[in-house]
Give the backbone structure.
Amino acid sequence: MALGVLSAVEPLPAQTLIVDIGGGSTEFVLCADRDVVWSRSLPLGVVRLTEEYTSASRRLNFLEATLAALCLELSKACNRLGIDCFATSLIGTAGTVTTLAALDMQMSAYDWRRVNNYDLSSARLRYWQARLLPLSPEAREALPGMEAGRGDLIIAGLEIMLCLMQHMHVNRLTVSDFGLLEGLLLSLKT
């Protein structure tokens, strides 16, 4: 996955934390230049969170505790590796973040070229959270850029990203449309 994500990011930051939010889990991969130096997988998928935590306050409490523990572990790994955690760029891939980029650009037709390297600030993510929360899943899916079938899941994805950004003291998320598939294809070339 990291190979695919990093191939799409320009310019490539010296150190990155790649976040791949899936349905059942979220993958966290720390890279120094192009090398994977640390990774974790946590049961923080958007489907899992949406189905298991129907109460927003319970879901947020779970996210807070889980991501605080992750960031503590990440900080220890950075110290051990001689990496400045506060200089780490955040890159997101997969459906949640690509959908948020498409929403932010109000795309009527999805274009991966515009999504790759798109920057989302924490302020824009909070804007989308406030805008989407009062809407029904159907009303969310009627918005330009919202992928069909994500109307009920996008809130949990937003909560993951905002909570992580807060714990990492990061205000910007770079989006990559490239991920596991592109990484596999690139690995076949080498």
Notes: Residues 180-186 have pLDDT under 50 and may be disordered. The chain has nine helices and six strands.
